[in-house]
């Protein structure tokens, strides 16, 4: 798994409602009993890693490294990031266990998956 | 050359590799790369004004979004380096070819327009990508410019693949 540096992050999106809790506090959770944050890079028109497995309550942070803008958008309605320009990040916290397939709404051949396991 | 590309669709494009035979400097390359992006954005606006095909309109929106982002990055680099890109024969050939192509496209509508636009997008990205990969990237001497071209090429190659699908989906024949 390639972890993307968070130092250039400019923006977080905190999405409320429909299965999405508020973003967790910075530095939270190193042990399995606390929420985690998992980084997904977007570069060369691909989500890296393409699939991440987290636990309910964990947060996924997408960071775009491409010149072209991208999004992470759920196949089935429920969640989506804003447009991410280069260097921008968005965080989404997953409360509901299950497999969440997603794609880029600008380049739909770009696909990824968030697997949420029960706590 | 792909058989789907008619000689007509490529008229105006063929000037590109010929004019690019002479090695260009960094400022000329920056000018031409920027111009090529602006041309594609203009084609896309024409497509949004004329086409009623969902796939064509989606492609055009992607071209506007992505080429605007690439050119914004190019503009930022130019400002950072405090240089002025140089107009040149290749930029002029591209602009002339594009004006001719727009005149041809604007006279069309419906499926004929969609096919002409899509085929031109495929041919345009093929020629531009080849020029960027084989000429501009090796020729540039300013590292941030070379890096920007490399990153831009990643995007343009995705567009070329997308254009190929669009052409195939439209079933334009030959
Ligand atoms: Cu994308």
Structural overview:
The complex is a heterodimer of chains A (119) and B (174). Chain A has strands at residues 37-43, 46-48, 51-55, 59-64, 73-74, 89-93, 98-103, 111-117. Chain A has 119 residues and is an all-beta fold. Chain B has seven helices and no strands. Chain B has helices at residues 7-10, 15-19, 26-50, 54-81, 89-106, 110-139, 143-170. Chain B has a single domain, classed as Ferritin, core subunit, four-helix bundle (Ferritin). In chain B, helix 3 runs parallel beside helix 5 (89-106), helix 3 runs antiparallel to helix 6 and helix 6 runs antiparallel to helix 7. The A-B interface holds A 44-45, 66-69, 85-86, 106-107, 109 and B 62, 65-66, 69-70, 73, 148, 151-152, 154-155, 158, 162. The complex binds copper (II) ion (CU). The site of copper (II) ion has 5 residues of chain A, from loops.
Describe the secondary structure blueprint for this structure.
The complex is a heterodimer of chains A (119) and B (174).
Chain A: E1 37-43, E2 46-48, E3 51-55, E4 59-64, E5 73-74, E6 89-93, E7 98-103, E8 111-117
Parallel strand pairs in A: 1-4, 3-8
Antiparallel strand pairs in A: 1-2, 4-6, 5-7, 7-8
Chain B: H1 7-10, H2 15-19, H3 26-50, H4 54-81, H5 89-106, H6 110-139, H7 143-170
The structure holds copper (II) ion.
Main sheet specs of chain A? 4 strands, mixed
The separation of the N and C termini of chain A measures 22 Å
CATH class call of the domain at 37-117 in chain A: Mainly Beta
| Low-confidence residue ranges of chain B | 1-12
Radius of gyration of chain A: 13 Å
Specify the CATH homologous superfamily of the domain at 37-117 in chain A.
Answer: Cupredoxins -  blue copper proteins
Characterize the biggest β-sheet of chain B. Answer: none
Backbone structural class of chain B: mainly alpha
Report the CATH C-level class of chain B.
Answer: Mainly Alpha
Enumerate how many helices of chain A there are, as a single number: 0
What CATH calls the topology of chain B is Ferritin
SS element count, helices of chain B: 7
Can you write the helix and strand succession of chain B as a string?
HHHHHHH
Q: Give the CA-CA distance, first to last residue of chain B.
A: 14 Å
Proportion in β-strands of chain B: under 5%
Structural class determined from secondary elements of chain A: mainly beta
Please tally the β strands of chain B and state the result: 0
In the residues of chain B, how many domains can be counted? 1
């Amino acid at each position: 798994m390639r972890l993307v540096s968070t130092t250039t992050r400019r923006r977080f999106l905190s999405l409320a409602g429909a299965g999405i809790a508020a973003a967790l506090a910075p530095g939270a959770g190193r042990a399995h009993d606390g929420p985690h944050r998992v980084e997904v890079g977007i570069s060369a028109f691909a989500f890296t890693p393409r699939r991440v497995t987290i636990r309910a309550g964990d947060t996924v942070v997408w960071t775009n490294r491409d010149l072209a803008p991208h999004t992470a958008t759920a196949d089935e309605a429920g969640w989506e990031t804003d447009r991410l320009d280069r260097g921008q990040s968005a965080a989404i916290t997953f409360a509901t266990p299950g497999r969440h397939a997603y794609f880029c709404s600008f380049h739909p051949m770009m696909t990824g998956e968030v697997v949420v396991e029960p706590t | 050359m792909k058989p789907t590309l008619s000689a007509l669709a490529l008229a105006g494009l063929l000037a590109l590799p010929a004019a690019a035979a002479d090695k260009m400097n960094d400022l000329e390359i920056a000018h031409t790369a920027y111009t090529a992006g602006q041309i594609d954005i203009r084609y896309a606006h024409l497509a949004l004004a004329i086409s009623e095909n969902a796939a064509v309109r989606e492609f055009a929106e992607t071209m506007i979004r992505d080429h605007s982002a690439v050119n914004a990055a190019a503009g930022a680099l130019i400002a950072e380096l405090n240089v002025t890109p140089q107009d040149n024969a290749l930029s002029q050939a591209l602009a002339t070819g594009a004006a001719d192509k727009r005149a041809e496209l604007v006279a069309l509508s419906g499926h004929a327009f969609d096919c002409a636009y899509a085929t031109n997008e495929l041919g345009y990205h093929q020629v531009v990508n080849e020029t960027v990969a084989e000429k501009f990237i090796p020729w540039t001497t300013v590292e941030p410019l070379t890096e920007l071209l490399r990153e831009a090429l990643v995007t343009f190659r995705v567009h070329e693949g997308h254009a190929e699908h669009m052409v195939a989906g439209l079933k334009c024949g030959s």
